[in-house]
Amino acid sequence: MTPMPLHQRAYIGGEDIRIVIGMGAxxxxxxxxxxxxxxxxxxxxxxxxxxxxFGPVDLIINLGxxxxxxxxxxxxxxxxxxxxxxxxxxxxxxxHDHAFLNGIPVTGSDAGSLYRHExxxxxxxxxxxxxxxxxxxxxxxxxxxxxxMDLDGPTLRMKCWQRLGRxxxxxxxxxxxxxxxxxxxxxxxxxxxxxxxxxxxxxCCRNHPAGIRTFNLDYVTVPGSSGPGSSRLEVATVPLxxxxxxxxxxxxxxRPEFAFTDFTAFSYLRIA
Length: 272
Description:
seven-stranded mixed β-sheet; six-stranded mixed β-sheet; 22% helix
């Protein structure tokens, strides 16, 4: 196997920036109390083919929304606590986590889900949310559930409630920011890339010298991932050679999605 490079050089705005590379990070978002999908994710990253294809997992980043909508919040929180004992884990606050903790009503949960969430209202498992931040950054990449904007005002303007869109402005679902606004914030903070979740669909935008362009995600099957005892894993890889917005789909439902990055490239992953 070719050794992983210790650094890469990126040319951003005419400047030669050295990015130190030292780890592989797995990222997931929007589990929404779906214990089965989270179990599939955990099983996948433990498979030998995963390490052979992507390298060791040094860090797991949870972009938020562990709660609401699904029926197994207790099992999901238990699994996340277990992950924190197996791996270095960074967890960020999602808007549904924030809503649950603060008693804010949101749509999308049926009566069964609401009942099971109320049963954990005083659970020690909720300690995972104590002091949980809304953002994290490393190697030039900003991780956040919703968006990067520092805004004053109501709850829906908080970073965990922000949403990526074509037109900026407030809405009943959260404040919308545009890719151009996000790239401006990244540049001001000396960062290159944004990784977010929240909207349940994968999307990639790259800031080319000629303008912002959407990157087409072409998925292929990871070799060795469809043998006995494992689900087929599909991957679409994006080189991190220019400023990029990387939005993840949900790690829930019948096709859980997540990602892996060594900070030279970013691989969107989905379990088929």
